Each structure stands twice: as structure tokens, then as C-alpha cells.
Amino acid sequence: MSIDIELERPPVEPAPESPDEMENPPIRIIEVFLHPLDYRSEGVALTDGPLELTPFVVELFGSYIVKGIGASQGRMARFHEGSKVQQVSLAIFAGATPALEGSREIARFLAHVMQGKNSSPGDLAVVRALDTETDQELLAILKLDLQRGLRRELSREDKKTRVRLVPVMDLLPDAERRLQKCAFIPESPHSLPYDLMILDNQAAGRSERSTANFFIADFLECDLIEGPREFTRKLPAETERWLQEEGATPVVAIEAREAVIQALHEPQVDLNRLAESVVPEPEKRERYLAHLEASGFQGRSFSTDASAADRLSSSLTYLLDNGVKISGDAEAVSALLQVEDDPTEEGMVRILIESFRFERKY
After folding, report:
1. How do the domains of the chain map onto residue ranges?
2. Phi, psi (5° rounding) for residue 13?
3. What is the pLDDT of residues 60-90, one digit of tens each?
4. E-strand stretches of the chain
């Protein structure tokens, strides 16, 4: 059972692209190499040249890359020493290996890694592209799972128009569909805190030995690392865990949560300064900092991710007994709820909700 509290707002139409955005896209496609994969037969069909860069191809693969890089599930990673994909990528960037041959090596290696794995056929796209904001080349490695669909065919028989639907088994994902596995390797990683960005939705939450993790562990041969986005998400969760373990009163907990969210909207979070605002008592403050260090905050400061901070502050959810939750727009929930600091004799939190509207939803 849930109680959803949200503001009713008129729908907002997406703003049309400006002429400048259309003429200067965030990603400029240089070359696209598409290699069909079928792990249950020959393994891989290596192509002998790049795709023709038609407007549709440019738009489609540009969309794949922009959405993959911007996905909230994306993670930073570091290559293992001797990673095959890293070696080939560096050779392509340096011009020591032609992009076509490099893409074929990457496709062959993926087919080898996938031998014996229970995975559906698909295509591997290796894309040379330019990040127009940084003027830096990148290599996008996209595993494209083929889709099923229907194609309409028209025919004339006996002066009558006939329509039939023909199954199509090898459709590429459209531009709106989220890719499951992709990696983005910048040309100059030495200026960044990572070697590559990874999006692997199929491996999320699975054990390191799961076959779904082949893309990260066996193919890319890299380790995920925590960056600004992960630390930004992690700080409120770990603070909440500590507040619950300490048995903080409702009012103290609310003030601490608000202090954390406010701190995340700064470019950098100083954990010592944050602890002073969250925990006034020195002894508890040291316990709070020790809890954060044990949960992965090795330094006493970190850079934040603005988009992750915005998402955290835009909505608010409170979990109550028996599966009940109160959730909705953060400002709306805060305005409707009043929480008393003193618990009841049974130790329960007393919450007062004031609303003009009280209507059951069916």
C-alpha cells in the first residue's frame, strides 16, 4: 500500500532543437563499423568497411552515444593491465592500427569471450566519434541486441489490394530504446579520473561471477570505480543508515537529511564541515565520519554530480510501517507533513498530514 503525494502540473512540451544544436551536435560521428554476431553458429561475420554515413545512420548512432553517456546507470571504470580492448583502442587512437582492423579485432575478441555463454545474437558496433564539447575523439563500443518486428507488404491480386505482415527478426534497436551494454573510451584518459565509461544494465545487481557480467569482467577486462555520481547517491543513503542505527529523533533526522542534500548542491562536499552541521556532538560526529569511511568514503572530500543531486532533491519518500510509503515532489511532501519530535509511549513517530484534498484513488 502506498500514499502518493504529488503536485498536479500541466504537461510540458519538449523544446524543439535550436538551429545551433542541429548544426553542432554534442557527438559528431566519424566512422561506424557494424559486425553481426551469432555466438551459436560461426561466431562473428566481420565486415570489410564502414557503414555509409547517411543522415539516418548519423542520427541513430549519435543518439545511442548521447543517451549511453548520459544514462544515470553509467559507471566509471579502470582497465586491467593488458586489457585487449584497451590495447586495440590505444592503437586506433595513435593511428598504429586502422580503425576497421581494430574494430574487427574487438569483434573477434567479443565472439571468443561469448563462446558457451547463453546470449542472444546481436551486432557489435564500434564507432569513432568526436565529443564536440571537449574536441576529443572517443571510441564507442555498442552491443546491439536485435529486435523482432513486423514489416507491412502491399500487393495487388485480381485488382484487389492485399496487405500482409511479414516477421522481421533482425531489427536494430531504434533511437529511443535503451542499449543494455556499451562502453565509451576517451582518447586522452590521463586527464580524467577513469579510463572508460560503462553502461551495463543486464549486470546491475548481479554477482561478479554471473554470466551477465561477461561484458565488464571478461570482455572489457576492467574494474568499476566510484566517482562523483556514485558518491553523490551514496552519501544520503549512508547518512540515513547511520541515523537509523543511532536512533536519531525525527526532527534531528530531518535536519540532517536536509543538510546533506544542501551540501550535495555544491561542487565539492567537505565531509568534516558536513559532519559539524549534521552532528553537533563531537563523539557522535566521529562515529558518523567513521561510518562514512567504512562505507567507502576514503577521503574527507569529494566532487559532486549536479544531475544526481538534482534527482535526489526533486522527490521525497518516507517509508512507514506495513509497507506504507509517503512519496512525491519534495516541496509538496514537506509542506503537507508535520513530524513531532517526541515519540509516543510505544516509541512510534507521530505524523500530521494537513491537506484540503482527501480523496481515495481507484
Report:
1. 3-145+176-225, 229-353
2. -75, 135
3. 999 999 999 888 788 899 999 999 999 999 9
4. 3-4, 27-38, 43-44, 75-79, 122-131, 136-145, 147-157, 160-171, 181-186, 196-200, 222-225, 268-270, 301-303, 315-319, 325-329, 337-339, 351-353
C-beta of residue 324 within 8 angstroms of C-beta of residue 294? no
DSSP string, 54-74: -HHHHHHHHHHHHHHHH-TT-
The answer to whether 4 and 329 are in contact (CB under 8 A) is: no
Tell me which residue of 315, 313, 337, 312 sits closest to 328, measured CA to CA. Answer: 315
Label residue 309 exposed, middle or buried (CB < 10 Å: 0-12, 13-18, 19+): buried
In Å, the largest CA–CA distance within the chain is 91
- Reduced to 3 states, what is the DSSP secondary structure of residue 359? coil
Segment holding 289, helix H or strand E = helix 282-294
pLDDT in tens, 152-166: 888 888 888 988 888
